[in-house]
Amino acid sequence: MATGRNEPVTPESPGTVEVKNAYFNSIYEKFDKNHNGTLEEEELREMLKHDGKIQDMIVQSIFIDSDKNNDGHISHDEFIAMVQNEKFRDKFDKYINVYIKHVLPRRRKRGKYADANYEEQYKCWPLPFGMVLISILQITCFVADQYTEKGQESISSHLIYDPTKRLEMWRYLTYMFVHIGVEHLTVNLCVQLLLGIPLEMVHKWWRVVLVYLAGVLAGSLCSSVTDPDVNLAGGSGGVYAILTAHIATILMNWREMSFPCIQLFIYLTVIVGDLAMSIYQRCWLRRSNGVGYVAHLAGALAGVLVGIWVLKNFRPTKKETYLWWVAVFTFSVLMGAMIVLNFVYDTWLRK
Fold first, then answer.
1. Three-state secondary structure call for residue 148
2. pLDDT (tens digit, 9 = 90+) per residue, 294-338?
3. Who's near 267: CB < 8 A, 6+ residues apart?
4. More exposed terminus of the chain, fewer Cβ within 10 Å: N or C?
5. Residues 263 and 147 placed together within one structural domain of the fold
6. Range(s) of the domain holding residue 46
7. Known catalytic residues?
8. Are the beta carbons of 218 and 280 closer than 8 angstroms?
9. Where does the EF-hand domain lie (predicted)?
């Protein structure tokens, strides 16, 4: 979109078919009020009367001409054909311009592409419930533990990761439901909800859950071999994976994001600062507080690799395709090695 304040804004401004279609898709989704995937005549009327200067009979005429299969609705394909129809082109350009000016954010143009195409991908449907569901399960487990009577085995005792019980496979993942104290739980919940839900709104919930679980699994596998005296509790491996997944999606969608340099700097600062403080406390101050720092580091690495692998890349380049394969190969090799080392640990490495 043009950057000058007084320049006209048209669907052609960005100069690319992809961006123009993104405009039309945004309009279609906004005015599909009942989210049934089609436009009713009333919804079309609301769209075209956005500035109050079109007659009802014109709306009805456009609707009838555009409803090719006469089912009383305008499908997405019919809508695209309608806005590209020479008969209605001038009229739609005029009224869609009003929408673009007042609803869509202004963009900076870099070369033939426009900024902020990534931000337009945010959607509330399907519902981003992945991180919410995991958080509810974590809260439920924590509350249940608080009401466990003395002398009874708590739920967490069957879920926490204990390296001496490495053959109880479920523990490699279920330790993410156990938290040591309210502060531990609260911090993890805040980070995974505040950062996980925005990722789900762009990339769909199941992709983000895969990233989270990869971080949890990588954390337990690596910690079990390299830091075998530490039991693991909490979803910090998954939380770090969510943090670094944002880095992955910035790298893969650099041209489509607003201010990618600033976003990348913020996430790197948070991650590097926290890891540096953890290493300093563990190695220099000799504070052994039972925190699985290796799990944090492994989760962070998994978040980048799996994020590149499973999160969406809206305009892949040849270099990014190579990067995708490197991420798949690296993650597969590292995880395979950790799985093997865990199986042979008691019979070989511990000697």
1. coil
2. 888 899 999 999 999 898 887 778 888 899 999 999 999 999 999
3. 243, 244, 246, 247, 250
4. C
5. yes
6. 17-117
7. 236, 296
8. no
9. 19-54, 59-89
